[in-house]
Amino acid sequence: MKPVMLITGASAGIGAAASRIAATKGYDLALNYRSDDAGAKAVAEACTDLGARCVLCKGDVSDPDAIAAIYQTVDTEFGRLDALINNAGVVDQTAKVTEYTHARLRRMFDINVIGAILVAKEAVIKMQAAGNGGVIVNVSSAAARLGSANQYVDYAASKAAIDIFTKGLSDEVAQDNIRVMAVRPGLIETEIHAKGGEPGRADRLAHMVPMKRKGSAEEVAQAIIWLCTDDARYVTGSTLDVTGGR
Ligand code: NAP
């Protein structure tokens, strides 16, 4: 039986790229997304062509009931879970801290922090019950180190929370052979920048990257999937920058 991977935010960007690479590495896939039905369907078709069995699990990770439904689907369709790519995440419009509203912060932290923690919690429960170990890769951001002043400090803070959650959870579950890591992407060309109101952001800031270029979703996804493989079997608690040196 093939290993099963759940990827949140799989309808676009880094999650979509991770889905395609995981399919080539022999995983069957539970693909979560929130709203982009066409994107999710296209990813599932591409992964099916690459040999994976794919199940779409539409649902908003900031909604605990939706998380329960996602895992119900994983249970019903696959009956096992070997890896979680905890990738779904959002930015917001560029703003200074003095402009933030409570509603903005609630959305950011409900999705990027509370949602991610609850998704990881359910994965751990399943992996511990099965007793076969497992892998969780949380998708953080270089923003967790850089702070993103004048852009989205709230986003940076949400990703810093993910970094330390990664360390704490990894220590809690290492004895169960459940490995927990984070990947911190840098400036990566995806639609997330347009969703934050700045479609050209990766190009605009590329000169600040030591490698003098933006990265691709595939370059991040390769690192994520490597962490899931047995080649990384002694890696846990680590946070890997995929940033071109930034
Ligand atoms: P993206 O292209 O905007 O894709 C985001 C994905 O997350 C989409 O599939 C979206 O689904 C899904 N999503 C958003 N909110 C969700 C929710 N509440 N519930 C379930 N799914 C949700 O973004 P990306 O650039 O690939 O980002 C992926 C991850 O990398 C995020 O955690 C982001 O913070 C992180 N990251 C990105 C960069 C970068 O430069 N691109 C840098 C550092 C970190 P729908 O579209 O279907 O709603």
Descriptive terms for the model:
alpha/beta; two-stranded parallel ribbon; 46% helix; binds NADP nicotinamide-adenine-dinucleotide phosphate; single chain; seven-stranded parallel beta sheet; 246 residues; 9 strands
Short characterization:
The longest helix has 29 residues, at 102-130.
Structure overview:
The protein has 246 residues and is α/β, with parallel strands linked by helices. Helix content is 46%, strand content 17%. It has nine helices and nine strands. The protein has helices spanning 13-24, 37-49, 64-77, 102-130, 143-146, 153-173, 192-195, 201-205, 217-228; strands at 4-7, 28-33, 54-58, 83-86, 134-139, 178-185, 188-189, 215-216, 239-242. The chain has a seven-stranded parallel beta sheet, sandwiched between helices. It has a two-stranded parallel sheet with strand order 7-8. Helix 1 (13-24) links the parallel strand 1 and strand 2 (28-33). The longest helix is centred in the middle third of the chain and has 29 residues, at 102-130. It is globular and about 50 Å long. Residues 8-15, 32-36, 60-62, 87-90, 111, 139, 141, 185, 187-188, 190-192, 195, 217 line the site of NADP nicotinamide-adenine-dinucleotide phosphate.
